[in-house]
Amino acid sequence: MLLGVLAAGPSAAALSAEEAAGRRLYETGIGVSGEAPQARVGSGGLALPASALPCANCHGRDGRGRPEGGVTPPDIRWSELIKPYGHVHENRRRHGPFDADGFRIAVGDGLDPAGNRLDQAMPRYLFGARDLDNLRAYLRHLEKRAARGVGDMHVQIGTLLPLRGPLADAGKAVRGMLEAYFARVNAAGGIYGRRLELVVAEYANDAERSVDNLGHALDDGDGVFALLSPFAAGFERRLTDLAKARDLPVVAPVVLVPDNRPAANSHVFHLLSGGTELARVLADYARATLELDNRDIVLVQSAGSAWDGAAQDVSAHLERGGDGSPGRTLFRRGLTDLDGMAAKLEADGAKAVILLGGDLDPAVFAAAAARNDWYPELLVPGPFASQDVMALPPGFDGKVFVAYPSLPTDRDKATWQDYLALLAEAGIDRAPHATLVASYAGAELLVEALKRAGRELSREAMVLGLEKIQGFESGLLPPLTYNTTRRVGALGGYVVAVDLAKRVYRPIGPWRSLD
User: Fold this and answer.
1) Which one of 304, 340, 342, 372 counts the least CB within 10 Å of its CB?
2) Quick check: 2 pLDDT over 60?
3) How many CB atoms are located within 10 Å of the residue 510 CB?
């Protein structure tokens, strides 16, 4: 399965005190004093508070201006105002570049640098010197917020996919499916008249090359507005940092390696639960259905700080719901004596084992346990369940449980047929369905978020739109819900039993939510 996280875009540094005050003035009309300065409107000079007529109302939160009601407010980002060759407006009004003094006169007296009167729709604001300085500082900052990859007629969406090597078939299938999906959206008029365009960066086995390839996609030409279904196996944490630093939203399937740093994933919206969340689902199952005490459960975790944090998260989850703490054992590939580990766990009275991390194959662990004639309940998050899980020693029959973030039963019949038709349109006859289903659902979520962000598209509006999504039905996955702190849409999973005799999975009960 293609697993991913991430994003990118120009850096949006934290606001300075002056920029923050300028933003408040620009968006709300409230000055440095905490009150609204006065504004005069129209030929009669009607006096109103600036809070009734903030700059953003006409020029937009991004400063670019949008035609409305027969009036076309200009782009007032500072780099536009100071263009050395000046400006020629639609009504043929001409003037040279603004400077600080010219800006003051335009805002307060309604005159451009050539002495021409501005449109009467433009209020004349009675701002003090500090308010003017703060406003000018924020207009400079708007350049940093400008959304790359967005034009009047297009939005460029990036992805990172393997196009060569053993994963090439999966990567090419995702690319073909996304291109076909975007073509459908565009044929229906796009999003607020903008066409969706896919920009593909090539994932390489080498992390440095992959990051470099992604950087070119983000920075070359128009760049990209957001990332969709990126493949980031092996360097998720680094790409998550890139996403946050560049202030760009990302819609990703599922993260394999957890990132336990506070607010690390502020811009990454995962569709499905990963290994840590699914381990919590299994922990609940062990306690509620298998009726085990916390002390009966042992977490066998892979080595590494990410898995230390994951084990702490699962332990804390168990402790909130019951008495005592589960056991924890560290597995180091090539160093740990599994037979000795199994013997000690049995001697300690462990009745259930939750595997946490991809270093330890469940079949290898089960073989070591069987050599000790020990058959505990074996609980495996889906991302860590190898194909050999069906071939465990017979003593484990009825004792192996796997948690998955979604099942085929989540698929609405009509949506599934529509999805299959899209694959046919794209010429995809062999496909890793789990990967493509997640990418298709991600594209549906992306389009919904773009619609919610509105015509004045910005990364900030996109993130806010995603955070407000509640119970979104893609038709192929469990409902997706986000908020200001939640970055996993379908937070929970299904538990399935492994029938070793018949070599099949048997779902046990409904979706298990972690809300």
Assistant:
1) 340
2) no
3) 9
pLDDT in tens, 290-314: 999 999 999 999 998 889 989 999 9
Which one, of 269, 298, 293, lies nearest residue 443 by Cα? 269
Taking the C-alpha atoms of residue 205 and residue 123, their distance in angstroms, rounded to an integer, is 57
Q: In Å, what is the CA distance from 186 to each residue of 183, 198, 272, 378, 447?
A: 5, 12, 27, 48, 11
Q: DSSP for 241-291?
A: HHHHHHT--EEES--SS---STTTTTTEEEEE--HHHHHHHHHHHHHHTS-
Which CATH fold topology does 154-271+411-484 show?
Rossmann fold (3.40.50)
CB atoms within 10 A of CB 316: 11
What pLDDT digit, counting tens, does each position of 213-231 carry?
888 888 777 789 999 999 8
287 Cβ neighbours under 8 A, 6+ residues apart: 293, 294, 297, 318, 321, 322
At the topology level of CATH, where does 17-145 sit? Cytochrome Bc1 Complex; Chain D, domain 2 (1.10.760)
Dihedrals phi, psi of 69, to nearest 5 degrees = 60, 35
Determine the Cα–Cα distance for residues 320 and 448; give it in Å rounded to an integer. 36
Tokens of 241: 């940092």
DSSP letters for 358-401 = SSS-HHHHHHHHHHTT---EEEEEGGG--GGGGG--GGGTT-EE
CB contact burial 190-216 (16+ within 10 A = b; e otherwise):
bbeebbbbbbbbbbbeeeeebbebbee
Q: Is residue 6 over pLDDT 60?
A: no
Percent of the chain with pLDDT over 70: 94
Shortest CA distance to 54 belongs to which of 18, 1, 107? Answer: 107
Per-residue model confidence (pLDDT) at position 500: 93
What confidence category does residue 69 fall into, taking pLDDT thresholds of 50, 70 and 90? low
The second-level CATH assignment, the architecture, of 275-404+494-513 is: 3-Layer(aba) Sandwich (3.40)
Do 154-271+411-484 and 275-404+494-513 show the same overall fold? yes
Q: Residue 256: pLDDT above 70?
A: no
Question: pTM of the entire structure?
Answer: 0.75
